[in-house]
Amino acid sequence: MSEVFSPAIRRACIQQLTIYEISEDELKVLESGSPVSLHLNFAVFLLSVAMSFFIALLTTTFPSDRMYTTFVVVLAVSFLIGVFLLILWLKEHMSGSSVGKRVRSRLIPEGEFIPLLNQSTTHKE
Known about the structure:
Elements (H helix, E strand, L loop, with lengths): L23 H9 L3 H24 L5 H31 L3 H6 L21
Helix pairs in contact: 2-3
């Protein structure tokens, strides 16, 4: 009763494989993610805070001028910094200075060959 189980193996061949070489710094950036995405995260957070304080200003009455001034200051600061970070994110996002694009731009067009340089160095005295 000891039958050997032999599963059927199917293999799909890859027609072409492209290998990209990356530097240590590029690898670290890819591992940590784009720092530009933090700008968008903080912009969304700060603009949400500004919207909340704006709605609170419109819908409530404040017993003291000090509390009203605090709400206005928080609204203004969070709105200004949020808009600044959103513009910064848009600028970086549109510029396309991502690591992936930089690495892909190194790829030599198909059919074009670049001769390898001789790696040996000789010192003449």
